[in-house]
Design goal:
- It is built from twelve helices and no strands.
- The chain is mainly α and 272 residues long.
- Helix 3 crosses helix 4.
- The protein is globular.
């Protein structure tokens, strides 16, 4: 176990510049494929948020959530989801999409999930710009608690990297994994507090059990953490049990991903 974790961490830290270069190349390649380039890095999430706001905020007449108007509440939570979701989906094919490279040269395969996360982190920053503009328009100014976004951004990156490590290997073993994950992502969004609170009222039977189950989702911790930092002035240290659970769960995923990557690192060519 320790050998596999050391292998992945060492290979990633020794190739930080390579990770940066690959992520930059992938971003520029995406931009070159479209006429408006970087415009879509801002337009795509803005259109998604606008759609959810029109449907759930306007058509369904959503009331303020926790004293916060629905639009700013939505856009801050969606900023976290906009980073996690593509990391998980694209992470499935992180290794498989680079088979032409790993078959022709000696390549540090374990860095490939990190390149996906690094690329999507740029898109996450674009989404945060949209969120900050929305917050300013809605009258929410920055305060010291906004620094908590750095912590929860780190949580999102480590979680996404851990899941991507596992899925990138599993996809090489079974190609259907990517299709399964793609199908499950929409369901995962609805079971995360992205467009609704993920909280059941007392009028729902077994609401305590259901609310407890919702909190077991690590994305619950990240998305609510973004909102706690921006709207409610609540630090992560005020949720010690949730914080401990999140990091234990995420580290278990990371160790599992490292073990899978270490075990199959020399067998990927045979799996193509």
């Amino acid at each position: 176990m320790f050998t596999s974790v050391k292998y992945v961490l060492t290979e990633n830290f020794q190739n930080l510049y390579r990770i940066y270069c690959i992520a930059k190349y992938e971003l520029l390649a995406d931009m070159r494929d479209s006429k408006f380039g970087i415009f879509w890095n801002f337009a795509s999430p803005a259109i998604q948020v606008l759609t959810y706001w029109l449907v759930f905020g306007i058509a369904w007449n959503r009331k303020p959530v926790g004293g916060v108007e629905y639009l700013p509440w939505l856009v801050v939570g969606y900023a976290a989801w906009w980073f996690i979701q593509p990391c998980i989906q694209s992470g499935c094919s992180a290794v498989f999409s680079k088979t032409s490279v790993i078959t022709k040269m000696k390549f540090p395969v374990s860095v490939l999930p990190a390149t996906i996360c690094a690329k999507e982190f740029f898109n996450h920053l674009c989404m945060l710009v949209i969120a900050f503009v929305t917050l300013a328009v809605c009258g929410h100014g920055p305060n010291i608690y906004w620094l908590g976004l750095f912590y929860y951004g780190l949580c999102a990156f480590v979680f996404a990297e851990s899941v991507s490590l596992i899925l990138s290997v599993l996809t090489m073993l079974w190609r259907d994994v990517k299709k399964l994950i793609t199908s499950l992502m929409r369901m995962l969004m609805y079971f995360s507090p992205v467009i609704w609170e993920c909280h059941f009222g007392e009028n729902v039977s077994h609401h305590n059990v259901l609310n407890f189950i919702m909190k077991l989702n690590p994305i619950y911790y990240i998305v609510n953490g973004y909102r706690d930092s921006v709207f409610y002035g609540i630090g992560f240290w005020e949720h010690p049990m949730l914080t401990a659970y999140f990091w234990v769960f995420t580290l278990v995923l990371f160790v599992a991903g490292c073990m899978l990557m270490y075990k199959f690192k020399r067998k990927f060519i045979d799996l193509i």
